[in-house]
Automatic annotation (TrEMBL):
Pathway of action: Nucleotide-sugar biosynthesis; UDP-alpha-D-glucuronate biosynthesis; UDP-alpha-D-glucuronate from UDP-alpha-D-glucose: step 1/1
Enzyme Commission numbers on file: 1.1.1.22
Enzyme class (EC, first level): oxidoreductase
Recorded family membership: Belongs to the UDP-glucose/GDP-mannose dehydrogenase family.
UDP-glucose/GDP-mannose dehydrogenase C-terminal domain mapped to chain residues: 317-418
PROSITE patterns: PROKAR_LIPOPROTEIN
Protein name (record): UDP-glucose 6-dehydrogenase
Keyword Oxidoreductase carried by entry: yes
GO molecular function, one term: UDP-glucose 6-dehydrogenase activity
UniProt KW Repeat keyword: no
Keyword tags: NAD, Oxidoreductase
Protein species of origin: Rhizobium mongolense
Length: 435
């Protein structure tokens, strides 16, 4: 099958590389010359474990190539995926679809013969209908089916998520498109991944509903964590206790500093706006968004409280900046708000992150970047763990204690056993437990 991926960002690159790995021929297209040039030199512009090896392997096997030009590869394609960005529109929180519609018009101008155009970008309900209208009215005579196929990849685990998905959602009622999509995902189907066919609008909503539900689940456990701190219960044990009920499930119940990233904040906001537009408000999600925003600021106050109520003139060492481990993505990361609160409080903030420091430099205020946890902890009044990178799990607390000014650990991801930290003489503050 000849497949073209429009947009070589996170979703486009991962999906393109994985589909090539399954034996399809893929061309990844992007308007950014710099990005395509880099990819052609063998440089992968994003950090995703395992992705560079898959790209390299499939390029040398001749199944994966890159192009700045859309028209030529699209003319030969059976399937064209739209995987361009849908950022939050400035001012109103709606998803900005201008890139999607521009891509759709360029694709329609270029196709020859029956072609399936698939939205993989997260697009609001009705976008597929609008693309179909553009095709019908502006490009009559072109034989194109429009399908929705949302992506459920997690950054940092994207390759496994793509190759071993819980489900593949495909929104189409067109029998020819159904056959083509079965063929695209046949290798995954053989892995027993269920293909779930439904109407296009339903499929578009499934993506938003899934992300909103997960964001709500995290927010629920974060509020339980606050309550645990007040009443002297342990949120990790509450999460385990409720998660053993299969109706609830044990995933996405880790209390922490609030969700961030390029998806949950944007998608929850877009769903709220859509629901308001259709006069069917989603109060649970509106509240989820508000609670999560407040939480990031509250975490800044929590650190200040752990430092005896003031960080003025104190040195604070922040471990982890990205919105979660195994990514270099800083978008909507809780670290940004927490660090701002510490700077506002008069602290000298020293930070370290294994992959995120490049991106952080454009987002954080005047902080000092260090080379490892021990360097930034020297003379510090507190260590604050914000992102749970593996390399922070086995820190040498004896060594840290000997170099810090005040032995205080604020663990916003609950990765350190209380007993171990206090045994080394640290004051220990966690999330959702009295320590
Ligand atoms: C999320 C979804 O999990 C994917 O299924 C979806 O495809 C993706 O958005 C998207 O729409 O593209 P992602 O944003 O990469 O994936 O990361 P997650 O692992 O979901 O984490 C999101 C945030 O929630 C992070 O800040 C993480 O630290 C936080 N989180 C997650 C918690 O605080 N607690 C948890 O139990 C789980």
């Amino acid at each position: 099958m000849r497949i073209v991926m429009i947009g070589s960002g996170y979703v486009g690159l991962v999906s393109g590389a994985c589909l090539a790995d399954f034996g399809h021929h893929i061309t990844c297209v992007d308007k950014s010359e710099a990005k395509i040039d880099a990819l052609e030199r063998g440089e992968v512009p994003i950090f995703e474990p395992g992705l560079d090896a898959i790209i390299e392997h499939n390029r040398s096997a001749g199944r994966l190539d890159f192009s700045k030009d859309l028209a030529a590869p699209v003319a030969d394609a059976d399937v064209v995926f739209i995987a361009v960005g849908t950022p939050s529109r400035r001012g109103d929180g709606h998803a900005d679809l201008s890139y999607v519609y521009a891509a759709a018009r360029e694709i329609a101008a270029a196709v020859s013969g029956f072609t399936v155009v698939v939205t993989k970008s997260t697009v609001p309900v009705g976008t597929g209908d609008e693309i179909e209208r553009i095709f019908r009215e502006e490009f009559p005579g072109k034989d194109i089916a429009v399908v929705s196929n949302p992506e459920f990849l997690r950054e940092g685990a994207a390759i496994t998520d793509f190759k071993r998905p819980d489900r593949i959602v495909i929104g189409t009622e067109d029998p020819r498109a159904t056959e083509v999509m079965r063929e695209v995902y046949r290798p995954l189907y053989l892995n027993e991944a269920p293909l779930y066919f439904c109407e296009r609008r339903t499929s578009e909503l499934i993506k938003y509903a899934a992300n909103a539900f997960l964001a709500m689940k995290i927010t629920f456990i974060n509020e339980i964590a606050d309550l645990c701190e007040q009443i002297g219960a342990d949120v990790q044990k509450v999460a385990k206790g409720i998660g053993m009920d299969k109706r609830i499930g044990d995933k996405f119940l880790h209390a922490g500093p609030g969700y961030g990233g390029s998806c949950f904040p944007k998608d929850t906001l877009a769903l709220v706006k859509t629901a308001q537009d259709y006069d069917s408000p989603m109060r649970l999600i509106e509240t989820t968004v508000a609670i999560n925003d407040n939480r990031k600021r509250a975490m800044g106050r929590k650190v200040i409280a752990a430092c005896a109520g003031s960080v003025r003139g104190k040195k604070i060492a922040v471990l982890g900046l990205t919105f979660k481990p195994n990514t270099d993505d800083m978008r909507d990361a809780p670290s940004i708000t927490i660090i701002q609160a510490l700077l506002d409080g008069g602290a000298a903030v020293h930070v370290y992150d294994p992959e995120g420091m490049q991106a952080a430099k454009e987002m954080l205020g005047p902080v000092t970047y260090g080379n490892d946890p021990y360097e930034i902890a020297e003379g510090a009044d507190a260590i604050v763990l914000v992102t749970e990178w593996d390399e922070f799990r086995a820190l040498d607390f004896k060594r840290l204690k000997s170099t810090m000014k005040n032995p205080v650990v604020v663990d916003l991801r609950n990765i350190y056993p209380v007993a171990e930290i206090t045994r080394h003489g640290f004051s220990h503050f966690a999330v959702g437990k009295k320590t």
